[in-house]
Amino acid sequence: MNGIAFYAGSFDPFTIGHFRIVCEALCSYDKVIIGIGNNPSKRPLFGAEDRKKLIQCSLLDFLDLLQNQQLCNYQFSDSEKMALERLQKDSECVKIVIYQGLTVDAALQNDAECLIRGQRNQTDEVQEKYLSVINGRLLDIRRRCLKTEVIPVSDENLAVVSSSTVKNLCAVGEYIAAMAYVAPSVHNALMKKYLRQVFMSAYREVVPGYFNGQPEKAWQELCRVYEKRAYHNLSHLAYGINYFNIYCRLWKNLPDIKPAEFLFGWFYHDFVVGCKNAEEQSAAEIADLLYLDKKTIPGLIRATVHSPDVVRTTEAQELINDIDSAILGDNANYGRYSLGIRHEYADVKTDAYAAGRIGFLQKQLKTEIFRSMFFKCLLLEEDARANMQREVQYWQNLRK
Predict the structure, then answer these.
(1) What is the mean pLDDT of residues 303-325?
(2) Closest C-alpha to 187, from 8, 14, 11, 9
(3) Distance of alpha carbon 6 from the chain centroid
(4) Is the same domain home to 108 and 200?
(5) Is residue 123, in this structure, part of any structural domain at all?
(6) What is the pTM of this model?
């Protein structure tokens, strides 16, 4: 090992690319200090303390994915596994600090021997050469020495990933694409930022008398309920909104329902979870708001009951159920979903959970999963069945 490495950035937010660089550094250095700096030319989306918390949550998320790799089927590189196993044994090998001023001073103040830089592409290469020259001059003035190690991001899928890329995807409503580049906790926090205006617009169109701060109050209450969950959270809401927006843009046979009403029903469809008649209770939560129409939106919420016995009478009801089930056919994110559901029932013993989960999945597999024409055209049925059958096999093997 080679002493202390200092990895500086704004980390607004922390991405999988950042995580990979930290892991590579952990394989070579005794300790890695992640330094959260301030770029005066940019207004950050998250405050420094929030960024620090999200980095901590990201590392915990990846540790969780590694510990449950058989269930979630998340792929790690050898260096990532090595680094996470080390972090699991010694949480002090990574330290996160917030600093003001020059990076070289922050590194020296933290007794670092090396500055770590990430390089994704040729643009980064030019920038790194520039920074190397400037940092060299600053260090000469201080009569101090710091070596610089540039860690290339070899995965071509991550070579174009940056915090800006993630935020740009979220800004145009491509929340699912953004999932691939950040840890689950970070994505959930991003959705608290980016879904707010979507909720406000739907609320104002659907709920009469929205003035006097009621949309903001309703949004804060919604976040309070959703944001702490492992799966039925703000990321889940964003996932469905992303698909609904694609539907509205590309599908010509729109159901006879206003988008705002559909979105409002979607925002509240999982307001209550984890109990019998949860959908009915979720519908009841907004009944007083909907004094103009107590049928359409509650009907949408009730349509998300995952039972072959539920009769859905409109295209909108079929669509909202299919959107709720879309994750089943998502090969990239199904593992995170199955792990998230397990965490939401963490108080249930493994054998009892496995029995219940197997029963639920097998019941779903006995019937057609996707009913709307839009989702039939997406051809997710086969992938969904394969994903669910693999999870059934996982829980069956665990019970042997």
Answers:
(1) 89
(2) 14
(3) 27
(4) no
(5) yes
(6) 0.91
